């Protein structure tokens, strides 16, 4: 039976270590204290120990349940944490006096539990707390040495041995999963750090390539233009190449700046009433003039909704998010169609759905799980410098989140990809839905 139990424990830890936080850890500690209180109350009744001790463990059970309720359901984590620290001091002194002093399990509980609590929970001035515990423990030893009559002893040696054994086994069953969790979490964090450094190094290397390529083109064709004695058509061709590479470089710089601002929390939405149709048309007009001449792509948009549909959002952030999605679709589509627009909004009264669809190579289901992560290895490969720096999709994802929206991906290898953006309306439409609008390049 122990093998399935260990396997279950490993699966649970693998799921939790990436989600665990300080408050959740505190909840687990409170839960363990509840288990210990239940077990201690029952064992005290069976062993016939002091009624004061039994009342205390029962009160501890109620207190820990209350603290868990306040922290988990009432969001009073900091209050519950401070109350728990006070409870630990009270429990240390009471258990020492009523449960055999240094001959009982109190010292063992202190040595096993307090370091775990201090390690797991973020507490200011931990050094002062450790000094306070040490001073309190010294005072208890001194009291027991000079005034042994203040300590309530065990009724028999058997009761003492049994109590120590039961408490030892209980802490063994609790601490082994906790220590195993520490080990797994440490390994996971170490591996994440190694992978993060490797991927960021690849990102910087690839970004260097992304910057050098348009810069070299701009400098090279500027020199050709400077010394050019060719006809006007050739000069116009040089101008076009310089402009295209300048636009590419500007877009790259904007993405890097936006990613940095998002990481630092410097971007906040400035929401106002926004007409969706002009935004879609503006995006179409912008990208229809930027289609690569070496690609056989048809760019189109459609609006299956009210032409005067308004939403309360940040138009600039939404424009940038959609622009990145459309640019990404054009970049990876060699031939076929790139279409974007508004889906049938009458199906959902609370949200508006905007789609960006292409007939590119598609994305596998495994890679879809990583597609919106910064510096992901899907958007660029360390040995393939032409795939971009892997920022545009993560930026779109973060910007849509800033607008209280969502973005999902539907893709099939060999058929294409669709990004579906959903943002809240919050404003009623002014007129009846119009017919479908479709504009082709």
Automatic annotation (TrEMBL):
UniProt-listed SUPFAM superfamilies: ATPase domain of HSP90 chaperone/DNA topoisomerase II/histidine kinase (SSF55874), Homodimeric domain of signal transducing histidine kinase (SSF47384)
Residues that span the membrane, as ranges: 26-47, 53-70, 82-98, 104-121, 128-147, 162-182
E.C. number: 2.7.13.3
Chain ranges of the Histidine kinase domain: 206-427
CDD domains xrefs: HisKA
Lineage summary: Bacteria, Pseudomonadati, Bacteroidota, Bacteroidia, Marinilabiliales
Reactions performed catalytically: ATP + protein L-histidine = ADP + protein N-phospho-L-histidine
The protein's name: histidine kinase
Pfam families xref list: HATPase_c, HisKA
UniProtKB keywords: Kinase, Membrane, Phosphoprotein, Transferase, Transmembrane, Transmembrane helix, Two-component regulatory system
Entry GO MF terms: phosphorelay sensor kinase activity
């Amino acid at each position: 039976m122990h093998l399935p139990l260990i396997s279950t424990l490993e699966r649970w830890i693998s799921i939790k270590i990436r989600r665990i936080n300080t408050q959740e850890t505190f909840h687990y500690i409170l839960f363990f204290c509840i288990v210990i209180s239940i077990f201690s109350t029952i064992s005290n009744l069976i062993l016939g120990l002091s009624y004061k001790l039994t009342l205390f463990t029962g009160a501890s059970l109620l207190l820990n349940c209350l603290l868990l309720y306040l922290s988990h359901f009432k969001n009073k984590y900091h209050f519950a944490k401070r109350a728990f620290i006070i409870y630990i001091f009270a429990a240390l002194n009471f258990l020492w006096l009523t449960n055999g002093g240094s001959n009982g399990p109190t010292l063992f509980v202190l040595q096993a539990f307090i370091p775990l609590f201090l390690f797991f929970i973020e507490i200011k001035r931990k050094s002062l707390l450790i000094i306070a515990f040490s001073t309190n423990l010294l005072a208890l030893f001194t009291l027991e040495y000079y005034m042994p009559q203040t300590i309530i002893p065990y009724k028999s040696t058997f009761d003492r041995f049994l109590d120590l054994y039961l408490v030892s086994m209980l802490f063994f069953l609790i601490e082994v999963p906790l220590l195993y969790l520490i080990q797994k979490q440490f390994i996971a964090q170490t591996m994440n750090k190694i992978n993060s450094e490797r991927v960021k190094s690849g990102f910087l290397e690839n970004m260097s390539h992304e910057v050098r390529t348009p810069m070299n083109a701009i400098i090279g064709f500027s020199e050709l233009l400077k010394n050019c004695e060719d006809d006007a058509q050739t000069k116009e061709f040089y101008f076009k190449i310089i402009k295209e590479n300048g636009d590419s470089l500007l877009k790259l710089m904007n993405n890097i700046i936006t990613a940095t601002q998002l990481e630092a929390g410097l971007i906040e939405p400035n929401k106002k009433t926004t007409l969706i149709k002009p935004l879609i048309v503006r995006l179409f007009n912008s990208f229809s003039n930027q289609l690569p001449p070496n690609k056989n792509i048809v760019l189109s948009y459609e609006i299956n909704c009210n032409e005067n549909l308004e939403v309360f959002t940040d138009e600039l952030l939404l424009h940038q998010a959609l622009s990145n999605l459309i640019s990404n679709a054009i970049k990876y589509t060699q031939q076929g169609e790139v279409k974007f627009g508004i889906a049938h909004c009458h199906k959902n009264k609370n949200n508006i759905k905007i789609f960006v669809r292409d007939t590119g190579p598609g994305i596998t289901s495994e890679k879809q799980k990583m597609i919106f992560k910064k510096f992901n290895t899907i958007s660029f490969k360390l040995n393939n410098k032409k795939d971009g720096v892997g920022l545009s999709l993560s930026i779109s994802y973060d910007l849509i989140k800033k607008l209280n929206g969502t973005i999902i991906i539907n893709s099939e290898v060999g058929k294409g990809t669709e990004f579906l953006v959903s943002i809240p309306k919050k404003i009623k439409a002014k007129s009846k839905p119009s017919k479908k609008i479709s504009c082709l390049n």
